[in-house]
Task: inverse folding
């Protein structure tokens, strides 16, 4: 532990803030604890034993460790209790100000509608208040009101959050900038409607906005595209299109009711062509059992964007969505369906595991059609090693390599009939 030349030096260094004063009381000539001529310490500090609303500044001994200090009680009140609604700190000043307050002297009741605070002054102001008595020179969002009904304010008194947050990005030089920064896309339009000269919502020469968007507030089957104000979404919230036709084609392709197209300024009136009943891509028919399903390109499309895989041709769709379909329905309905005759090797040019057999009896085959999702190998032996490597019966490799692969392949008579297996010794 540290050493000191005298006992008083030790008390001063180690126990300066000791509330009991025990260390000093043990000195041969202990100092008196009476306050100085100015009533205590020559500095002031905030009294943290009180709540902030009731807080005051004091110079009472001892000075708590780590407490900020100020030269005067007024400086302490201004620094430690700015905006204190109760005014408790200023009220405790040895010589409270008696002149009419300035904005720098009092910050507790700016904009007080009743005027009660000013009325209690020894010489209250008599002039009628101006707008500056009730407003500030910036705008802030009204976060005490639900967003859909809120606007921007510049009135006093300021909410505590505005006082505490002096970020200039949250204080706006004009009401319209505040509305744009905090209420963009507000469906009700309340904030903009409170402007001295609010923008009109009447449509432009083209009938409204210069783009179109889908009406997600109406059931898809009977919805249309709109370009009306106010916009019911934030930027990026919905797809937009340069024309109503493009919007209908992009957002309501396959709409059975035809409501969107019928609502066009110039809806198509000619007899329908194939494009009126079909789309330029193919998709699998998930409404039909897989084994007998096929690929379609008919309208209405029964899914939204990304809801099903799509293919540029019917053949590509059948190969992608119905590979391995044993009935062959999808490929069979092509204009020029492929023949199902086996290749010269007796089937496909790849091998795959036969999952219709138990694992211990499993083998690799190349029969058509290839089941969907089945792993394939370039030859039968690789297929057996990859798919049945843990097969204790060696059934697959016995079929792929022959009876000489292991003693579990066939009988001794089978090995003799095959010409013997010189590299194999079976007991």
Result:
């Amino acid at each position: 532990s540290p050493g000191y030349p005298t006992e008083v030096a030790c008390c001063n260094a180690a126990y300066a803030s000791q509330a009991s004063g025990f260390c000093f009381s043990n000195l041969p000539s202990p100092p008196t604890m009476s306050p100085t001529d100015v009533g205590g310490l020559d500095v002031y500090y905030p009294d943290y034993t009180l709540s902030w609303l009731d807080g005051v500044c004091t110079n009472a001994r001892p000075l708590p460790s780590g407490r900020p200090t100020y030269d005067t009680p007024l400086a302490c009140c201004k620094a430690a209790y700015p905006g204190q609604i109760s005014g408790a700190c200023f009220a405790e000043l040895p010589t409270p100000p008696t002149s009419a307050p300035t904005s720098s002297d009092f910050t507790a009741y700016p904009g007080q509608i009743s005027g009660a605070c000013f009325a209690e002054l020894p010489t209250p102001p008599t002039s009628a208040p101006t707008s500056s008595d009730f407003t500030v020179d910036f705008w802030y969002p009204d976060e005490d009101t639900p967003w859909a009904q809120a606007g921007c304010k510049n009135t006093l008194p300021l909410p505590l959050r505005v006082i505490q947050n002096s970020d200039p990005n949250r204080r706006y030089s004009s009401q319209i900038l505040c509305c744009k920064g905090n209420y963009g896309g507000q469906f009700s339009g309340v904030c903009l409607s409170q402007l001295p000269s609010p923008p009109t919502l009447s449509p432009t020469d083209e009938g409204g906005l210069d783009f179109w968007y889908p009406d997600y507030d109406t059931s898809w089957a009977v919805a249309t595209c709109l370009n009306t104000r106010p916009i019911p979404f934030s930027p990026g919230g919905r797809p937009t299109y340069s024309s109503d036709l493009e919007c209908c084609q992009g957002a309501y392709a396959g709409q059975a009711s035809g409501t969107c197209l019928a609502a066009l300024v110039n809806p198509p009136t000619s007899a329908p062509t194939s494009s009126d009943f079909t789309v330029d891509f193919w998709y699998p028919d998930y409404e039909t059992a897989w084994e007998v399903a096929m690929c379609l390109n008919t309208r209405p499309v029964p899914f939204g964007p990304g809801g099903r895989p799509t293919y540029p041709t019917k053949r590509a769709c059948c190969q992608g969505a119905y590979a391995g379909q044993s009935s062959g329905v999808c490929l069979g309905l092509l204009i020029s369906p492929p023949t199902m005759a086996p290749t010269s090797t007796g089937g496909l040019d790849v091998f795959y595991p036969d999952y219709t057999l138990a694992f211990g009896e499993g083998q690799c085959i190349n029969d058509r059609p290839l089941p969907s999702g089945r792993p394939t190998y370039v030859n039968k032996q690789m297929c057996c090693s990859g798919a049945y490597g843990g097969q204790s019966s060696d059934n697959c490799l016995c079929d792929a390599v022959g009876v000489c692969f292991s003693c579990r392949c066939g009988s001794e008579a089978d090995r003799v009939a095959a010409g013997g297996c010189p590299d194999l010794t079976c007991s």
The two ends are 88 Å apart (CA to CA). DSSP finds 16 helices and ten strands in the chain. Residues 103 and 110 are 8 Å apart (CA to CA). The first strand starts at residue 45 and ends at 46.
